[in-house]
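Lecture 7 notes: from sequence to structure.
We start with the chain below.
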Amino acid sequence: MSEITIDTNELGEKIVRVLKTIYDPEIPVDIYELGLIYDVFVNEDHDVKILMTLTSPNCPVAESLPQEIQEKVKSLDAVNDVEMELTFDPPWSQDLMSEEAKLELGML
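Predicted structure tokens for the same chain:
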């Protein structure tokens, strides 16, 4: 059997690794550590849904960033389809940033 089986948790970890390669253009921290990704869902068919926010509703990359994320995640071999959902509830705040991101930005 040559088909590679990958479980949803493993695929979820691969997706997070991809998300950590995408940076907010205004802040030198990746979108995952920045806290812009609220949730990543992967079903048995390897369809992915990403729930995310932006630093503000007027963010200059409101159109391009979700598209970049979708394209990069979809480029993973095991991913079937990617759906992006943008939300501002709850609104993004610096509290959502990881310790690593706060350290990187000199906030600790």
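Points to note: The domain at 8-90 is CATH 3.30.300.130 (GMP Synthetase; Chain A, domain 3). Helices lie at 8-19, 64-74, 99-104.
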